Amino acid sequence: MQGASARLLRNTFDAGPEGWQVYDYHGGSGSQNVFYPVTWEKSGGVHNSGYVWGDDSRWRIDTPEQPNSILAFLIYRSWVKGDQLDLREAKVSVYLRGDQLDLKGAKCHFWALDSQIGTRWRYVSQPLPITEGAWGGRVTFTLNNDEQLWRRTWARHPASPASLDQVLRECDSYGFSFLGFSGEVTGKFAMDELEIEFAGK
Fold this sequence. Notes:
Elements: E1 2-4, E2 8-11, E3 21-24, E4 34-37, E5 39-41, E6 51-55, E7 69-76, E8 91-102, E9 107-114, E10 119-122, E11 131-132, E12 139-142, E13 151-155, H1 164-169, E14 173-179, E15 186-197
Parallel strand pairs: 8-11
Antiparallel strand pairs: 1-2, 2-15, 3-4, 5-6, 6-15, 7-14, 8-12, 8-15, 9-10, 9-14, 10-13
Protein backbone atom coordinates (compact mmCIF):
# COMPACT_ATOMS: atom_id res chain seq x y z
CA MET A 1 0.00 0.00 0.00
CA GLN A 2 1.02 3.64 -0.31
CA GLY A 3 2.73 5.01 2.73
CA ALA A 4 4.03 8.46 3.52
CA SER A 5 5.98 10.05 6.34
CA ALA A 6 7.83 13.33 6.73
CA ARG A 7 10.78 11.86 4.87
CA LEU A 8 9.47 8.99 2.71
CA LEU A 9 6.72 8.30 0.18
CA ARG A 10 6.35 4.68 -0.85
CA ASN A 11 4.28 2.90 -3.51
CA THR A 12 4.52 -0.85 -2.91
CA PHE A 13 1.52 -1.74 -5.14
CA ASP A 14 0.85 -4.70 -2.85
CA ALA A 15 -2.84 -3.86 -2.45
CA GLY A 16 -3.72 -1.85 -5.56
CA PRO A 17 -2.62 0.69 -8.20
CA GLU A 18 -2.41 3.55 -5.66
CA GLY A 19 -3.68 6.20 -8.06
CA TRP A 20 -1.26 5.69 -10.96
CA GLN A 21 -2.50 6.12 -14.53
CA VAL A 22 -1.37 6.20 -18.18
CA TYR A 23 -1.82 9.29 -20.38
CA ASP A 24 -3.49 9.19 -23.77
CA TYR A 25 -3.05 12.66 -25.23
CA HIS A 26 -6.57 13.91 -25.98
CA GLY A 27 -7.61 10.37 -26.90
CA GLY A 28 -6.45 11.24 -30.41
CA SER A 29 -9.44 13.56 -30.83
CA GLY A 30 -7.91 16.86 -29.76
CA SER A 31 -10.77 17.45 -27.32
CA GLN A 32 -9.75 16.56 -23.78
CA ASN A 33 -7.16 14.72 -21.74
CA VAL A 34 -7.68 10.99 -21.31
CA PHE A 35 -6.24 9.02 -18.42
CA TYR A 36 -6.41 5.24 -18.19
CA PRO A 37 -5.81 3.36 -14.95
CA VAL A 38 -2.72 1.20 -14.87
CA THR A 39 -3.32 -2.54 -14.62
CA TRP A 40 -2.68 -3.90 -11.15
CA GLU A 41 -1.44 -7.45 -10.64
CA LYS A 42 -1.51 -8.88 -7.12
CA SER A 43 1.54 -11.05 -7.76
CA GLY A 44 4.40 -11.32 -10.21
CA GLY A 45 6.21 -8.21 -9.04
CA VAL A 46 9.50 -7.93 -7.23
CA HIS A 47 9.62 -10.77 -4.64
CA ASN A 48 6.31 -11.91 -6.25
CA SER A 49 4.52 -8.90 -4.77
CA GLY A 50 1.92 -6.72 -6.43
CA TYR A 51 2.93 -4.41 -9.28
CA VAL A 52 1.43 -2.21 -12.01
CA TRP A 53 1.80 -1.99 -15.76
CA GLY A 54 0.63 -0.09 -18.83
CA ASP A 55 0.98 -0.64 -22.55
CA ASP A 56 0.63 0.98 -25.96
CA SER A 57 -3.14 0.41 -26.00
CA ARG A 58 -3.39 3.23 -23.43
CA TRP A 59 -0.63 5.75 -24.16
CA ARG A 60 -0.36 8.14 -27.09
CA ILE A 61 2.35 10.56 -28.19
CA ASP A 62 1.97 13.90 -26.39
CA THR A 63 2.61 16.27 -29.28
CA PRO A 64 2.60 19.61 -27.36
CA GLU A 65 5.70 18.41 -25.50
CA GLN A 66 8.99 19.49 -27.04
CA PRO A 67 10.35 17.08 -27.91
CA ASN A 68 7.29 14.87 -28.28
CA SER A 69 6.96 12.39 -25.44
CA ILE A 70 4.87 9.57 -24.02
CA LEU A 71 3.73 9.82 -20.41
CA ALA A 72 3.75 6.11 -19.66
CA PHE A 73 3.14 6.43 -15.91
CA LEU A 74 1.83 9.47 -14.08
CA ILE A 75 0.12 10.50 -10.89
CA TYR A 76 -1.43 13.73 -9.67
CA ARG A 77 -1.23 14.27 -5.94
CA SER A 78 -4.89 15.33 -6.00
CA TRP A 79 -5.85 11.82 -7.16
CA VAL A 80 -4.71 10.45 -3.80
CA LYS A 81 -5.81 13.50 -1.79
CA GLY A 82 -2.18 14.43 -1.26
CA ASP A 83 -0.39 17.76 -0.93
CA GLN A 84 2.30 19.18 -3.16
CA LEU A 85 5.75 17.65 -2.72
CA ASP A 86 9.14 19.28 -2.37
CA LEU A 87 11.28 17.06 -4.61
CA ARG A 88 14.44 19.18 -4.49
CA GLU A 89 17.35 16.78 -3.97
CA ALA A 90 14.93 13.92 -3.24
CA LYS A 91 16.23 10.38 -3.68
CA VAL A 92 14.06 8.19 -5.92
CA SER A 93 14.26 4.42 -6.32
CA VAL A 94 12.14 2.08 -8.40
CA TYR A 95 12.05 -1.18 -10.33
CA LEU A 96 11.20 -0.87 -14.05
CA ARG A 97 10.51 -3.77 -16.41
CA GLY A 98 9.57 -4.16 -20.05
CA ASP A 99 7.93 -7.11 -21.77
CA GLN A 100 8.30 -7.03 -25.55
CA LEU A 101 8.84 -3.30 -25.05
CA ASP A 102 10.02 -1.70 -28.29
CA LEU A 103 11.33 1.72 -27.33
CA LYS A 104 12.01 2.78 -30.94
CA GLY A 105 15.23 4.37 -29.71
CA ALA A 106 13.60 6.17 -26.78
CA LYS A 107 15.00 6.61 -23.29
CA CYS A 108 13.00 6.52 -20.07
CA HIS A 109 13.11 9.61 -17.85
CA PHE A 110 11.58 10.81 -14.61
CA TRP A 111 9.63 14.07 -14.85
CA ALA A 112 8.06 16.61 -12.49
CA LEU A 113 5.15 19.00 -13.10
CA ASP A 114 3.69 22.03 -11.39
CA SER A 115 0.20 21.89 -12.88
CA GLN A 116 -0.93 25.13 -11.25
CA ILE A 117 1.60 27.17 -13.22
CA GLY A 118 1.77 24.60 -16.00
CA THR A 119 5.43 23.66 -16.48
CA ARG A 120 7.03 20.24 -16.85
CA TRP A 121 10.72 19.42 -16.48
CA ARG A 122 12.32 16.08 -17.37
CA TYR A 123 15.46 14.65 -15.81
CA VAL A 124 17.17 14.03 -19.12
CA SER A 125 20.70 13.71 -17.72
CA GLN A 126 19.90 10.32 -16.19
CA PRO A 127 18.07 7.89 -18.50
CA LEU A 128 16.60 5.03 -16.51
CA PRO A 129 17.35 1.40 -17.42
CA ILE A 130 14.41 -0.92 -18.11
CA THR A 131 15.11 -4.65 -17.88
CA GLU A 132 13.43 -6.80 -20.52
CA GLY A 133 11.39 -9.85 -19.57
CA ALA A 134 12.38 -9.90 -15.89
CA TRP A 135 12.78 -7.68 -12.85
CA GLY A 136 16.30 -6.33 -12.63
CA GLY A 137 17.96 -4.34 -9.88
CA ARG A 138 16.55 -1.34 -8.10
CA VAL A 139 17.20 1.91 -10.00
CA THR A 140 18.16 4.80 -7.71
CA PHE A 141 18.77 8.46 -8.56
CA THR A 142 18.75 11.88 -6.89
CA LEU A 143 16.71 14.79 -8.26
CA ASN A 144 19.47 17.37 -8.39
CA ASN A 145 18.11 20.91 -8.45
CA ASP A 146 20.24 21.99 -11.41
CA GLU A 147 18.58 23.11 -14.66
CA GLN A 148 21.59 21.97 -16.68
CA LEU A 149 20.62 18.37 -15.84
CA TRP A 150 16.97 18.77 -16.83
CA ARG A 151 14.99 19.86 -19.86
CA ARG A 152 11.82 21.92 -19.80
CA THR A 153 9.52 20.16 -22.27
CA TRP A 154 6.23 21.98 -21.76
CA ALA A 155 4.91 25.28 -20.44
CA ARG A 156 1.30 26.42 -20.52
CA HIS A 157 2.57 29.98 -20.92
CA PRO A 158 5.87 29.74 -22.83
CA ALA A 159 6.76 33.36 -22.14
CA SER A 160 6.62 32.81 -18.36
CA PRO A 161 7.46 29.20 -17.48
CA ALA A 162 8.24 28.07 -13.97
CA SER A 163 11.84 27.48 -13.02
CA LEU A 164 13.04 23.99 -12.16
CA ASP A 165 13.38 25.05 -8.52
CA GLN A 166 9.74 26.11 -8.41
CA VAL A 167 8.47 22.95 -10.11
CA LEU A 168 10.44 20.69 -7.79
CA ARG A 169 9.44 22.75 -4.75
CA GLU A 170 5.72 22.73 -5.62
CA CYS A 171 5.43 19.44 -7.51
CA ASP A 172 1.87 18.12 -7.76
CA SER A 173 2.39 15.55 -10.54
CA TYR A 174 5.26 13.31 -11.60
CA GLY A 175 6.01 10.07 -13.35
CA PHE A 176 7.99 8.25 -16.02
CA SER A 177 8.08 9.02 -19.72
CA PHE A 178 9.69 8.06 -23.01
CA LEU A 179 11.65 10.60 -25.05
CA GLY A 180 13.59 10.33 -28.30
CA PHE A 181 11.56 7.67 -30.10
CA SER A 182 11.33 7.30 -33.87
CA GLY A 183 7.73 6.07 -33.61
CA GLU A 184 5.20 5.22 -30.93
CA VAL A 185 6.67 2.95 -28.28
CA THR A 186 4.94 -0.44 -28.16
CA GLY A 187 4.77 -3.26 -25.65
CA LYS A 188 4.28 -3.55 -21.89
CA PHE A 189 5.92 -1.35 -19.26
CA ALA A 190 5.81 -2.31 -15.57
CA MET A 191 6.75 -0.65 -12.28
CA ASP A 192 7.16 -1.81 -8.68
CA GLU A 193 8.44 -0.61 -5.31
CA LEU A 194 8.66 3.14 -5.97
CA GLU A 195 10.16 5.13 -3.10
CA ILE A 196 10.80 8.87 -2.78
CA GLU A 197 12.98 9.96 0.13
CA PHE A 198 12.75 13.70 0.71
CA ALA A 199 15.85 15.71 1.44
CA GLY A 200 14.13 17.97 3.94
CA LYS A 201 15.87 20.92 5.51
